[in-house]
Every structure is written in C-alpha cells, then in structure tokens.
C-alpha cells in the first residue's frame, strides 16, 4: 500500500509518499517564508498563488525520490481543511484531478488529524491516547480513539499558542517565522527576570487562553524600551516559560480526565508546529514521566506542516475503508471532534 499526501492549507506546500510499513518513500516541503516575511505573517492570497506555482513541481520531485509512478499509488490523500481556503482548494483540486485521471481512491484528510496521527507512524502508539495539538492555528487537548474519532477535552478560548509565539517574535522584531526565533533566543535568556501572568492556571478544566499573555508582553516591551539583545532574550525566556507552565497545568487536568475515561490509555502525544519547541518537549517528557504516561512526539521536521503526515493519515483512513468522493468540498473550518459525524 503506497499513499501520496498533499498539503497546502497554510504557508507550506508539501507532498509526501509513505507505505504501510511506515516508510517515508518521498517527502518535499517548500516553505513560503520569503513570500510572507515582509508582511510579518501569512497573506492568504499570496499563499494560494504560491501553492499553485509550486505544487506540480513538488509532486514530481516527491515521486522522483520515491521512484514511483501514479500507477504505483494505492490512493491519493489531501489536506481538505481546515485552513486558508485558497490554498486548501489548490491542494484539493490537484488531488482530485490526479484521482480522476488515474482512477485512484481520493481521501480527504483533516489537516489536524494529520498532526494527530503523525506520531503513530514514527512510533508504536496504540489507541486511545491523549493528544496535545499545538500549532499556528490551533491549541487543543483531545483523546484520540481512532483515526476518525477524537474527543475534545479542552481548547483555547482565544489565540493559539503558535499565534502567541509569532506575535511575540513580531513585537520583538527577532525574525520570521516567530516560533523558532523565540525558541532560539529564549535559550540565552533568564526566564526569572520578568514575571508574566499565567492565564487559566489553576482554573478547573482544560481550556487555554493566550491573548492576555500577549498583551502583558506588549506592556512589558513598552515599559523596558529601548530593548537590548539581552532584554529580548529574557522576555522570550519568560514568555516561553509561562506558556509551558500553563500548558503543563492544563495537561495535568486533562491527564486526570483521560485516565478516568480510558484506563487502558498509556501515551501522551504532542504534535503540531509548536511541538517543535525544545523546552516544551523537555517539560512534557518530564510531566508524562511524573504522571506515569509514555511521552511521544514526532521528530521536529514532522511536527511542522508536511506532506508525510497527510499521506500517513490518508493511509490510516484508507485501511479503514474511509474513502471520499470527488464532490467533497474543501473546508476552511473543520473541527476534529466532528470528524466521525461528517463522514
Ligand atoms: O503546524 P504548523 O506548521 O502550521 C499550522 O498548522 O498552524 O505550526 C506553525 C506554528 C507557528 O506558529 C510557528 O511559529 C510554530 O508553529 N513553531 C514553533 C516552533 N516551530 C514552529 N513554536 C515554538 N517553538 C518552535 N520551535
Ligand atoms: Zn499544521
């Protein structure tokens, strides 16, 4: 079984080809950082045009790496939402055209399920597992029961963690994309010099909030200006430590709930772009050990958007017979916990 996955829902155009032996046969990711850098964020119209220019080239290159032709593919999967709809449409139309022309099964993958299932390809993880999904557009805690069933335990009431990382980097003018820039600079900073509020910490439940933290960083920057490089590093370190502290607090509640509901569940999985964060990975590994759970995270290159995760999620769906028709509509919004209802 060989499945191709196409990703174009945000600012990465990507194509991955995997097989059921969990081997990556081909993978190409093209990040549009240069297109968006001068705007300090992703511009949807520019993203859609850039996807259109690159997608054929990337598919050809992934197939060259994998040494496969269309006749060797068992199915074609695409991230059909959620995301910036112009980009999602580029991927969806391309995948549909290939599926139609080559008579291949077409699989509409939820982009978030791509992140959610990635760790099952790189490690042996059984259902059910507890998932922290932290990306640019999303911040949620879910119990994953199957490739098609997700139970939401909590989520952000305002911004995502990734958005907060990106905004803080923009405010500090330390580079684009923001998350990796904050991660790098925080490593040189003192997290204790500045104290920031910890939104939601200690509250019941598993929800997050990051907009107040963003505002607090804005006020701190105004107060300290002009900023030295060390000031910037200390602010990054304080911000990152606060985000991690809040995530740990929310996860502790989620682990309790998860254990009550799924006594057989063993794994805590973290996924999505922010799961590339070095300090977060270290903190969650420790938390999982304290709570008697096994910590798993995909390798950093498979945490941020890529085609392999879409191909793998497509393969998991294909194995269950979950194939879609070519009239499947691309979706700007598509909550993970509605997956089993809509299919
Ligand atoms: O999953 P992803 O590639 O795209 C979405 O689906 O949103 O996540 C992108 C997000 C961005 O906000 C980016 O700043 C953040 O992941 N990110 C990081 C790191 N690497 C990427 N955040 C913190 N630390 C990192 N090392
Ligand atoms: Zn993503």
Question: What features would you describe in this structure?
Answer:
With 343 residues, the protein is an alpha/beta fold. It folds into two domains: 153 residues, ATPase, nucleotide binding domain (Nucleotidyltransferase, domain 5, 2-Layer Sandwich), CATH 3.30.420.40; 178 residues, ATPase, nucleotide binding domain (Nucleotidyltransferase, domain 5). Helices cover 46% and strands 17% of the residues. The protein contains twelve helices and ten strands. The strands form two sheets. It has a five-stranded mixed sheet, sandwiched between helices. The longest helix is centred in the last third of the chain and has 33 residues. The two termini are 22 Å apart. The protein binds 5'-O-[(R)-(carboxyoxy)(hydroxy)phosphoryl]adenosine and zinc ion. The site of zinc ion (ZN) has 6 residues, from helix 4.
């Amino acid at each position: 079984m060989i499945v191709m996955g196409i990703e174009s829902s945000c600012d990465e155009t990507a194509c991955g080809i995997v097989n059921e032996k969990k081997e990556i046969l081909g993978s190409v990711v093209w990040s549009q950082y240069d297109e968006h850098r001068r705007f300090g964020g992703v511009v949807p119209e520019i993203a859609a045009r850039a996807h259109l220019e690159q997608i054929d080239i990337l598919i050809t290159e992934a197939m060259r790496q994998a040494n496969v032709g269309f006749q060797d593919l068992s199915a074609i999967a695409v991230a059909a939402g959620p995301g910036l709809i112009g980009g999602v449409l580029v991927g969806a139309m391309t995948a549909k055209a290939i599926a139609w022309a080559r008579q291949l099964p077409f699989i509409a993958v939820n982009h978030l399920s791509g992140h959610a299932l990635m760790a099952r390809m790189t490690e042996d993880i059984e259902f059910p597992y507890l998932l922290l999904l932290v990306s640019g557009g999303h911040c949620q805690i879910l119990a994953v029961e199957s490739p098609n069933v997700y139970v939401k335990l909590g989520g952000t009431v305002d911004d995502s963690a990734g958005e907060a990382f990106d905004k803080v980097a923009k405010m500090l003018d330390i580079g684009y994309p923001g998350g990796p820039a904050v991660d790098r600079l925080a490593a040189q900073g003192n997290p204790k010099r500045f104290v920031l509020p910890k939104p939601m910490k200690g509250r019941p439940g598993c929800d997050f909030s990051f907009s107040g933290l963003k505002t607090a960083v804005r006020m701190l920057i105004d107060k300290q200006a002009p900023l030295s490089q060390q000031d910037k590093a200390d602010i990054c370190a304080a911000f990152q430590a606060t985000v991690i502290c809040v995530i740990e607090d929310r996860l502790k509640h989620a682990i309790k709930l998860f254990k009550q509901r799924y006594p057989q569940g063993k794994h805590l999985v973290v996924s999505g772009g922010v799961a590339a964060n070095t300090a977060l990975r270290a903190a969650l590994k420790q938390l999982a050990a304290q709570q008697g759970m096994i910590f798993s995270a995909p390798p950093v290159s498979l945490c941020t958007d890529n085609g392999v995760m879409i191909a793998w999620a497509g393969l998991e769906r294909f194995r269950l017979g979950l194939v879609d028709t070519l009239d499947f509509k691309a979706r700007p919004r598509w909550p993970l916990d509605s997956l089993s209802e809509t299919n």
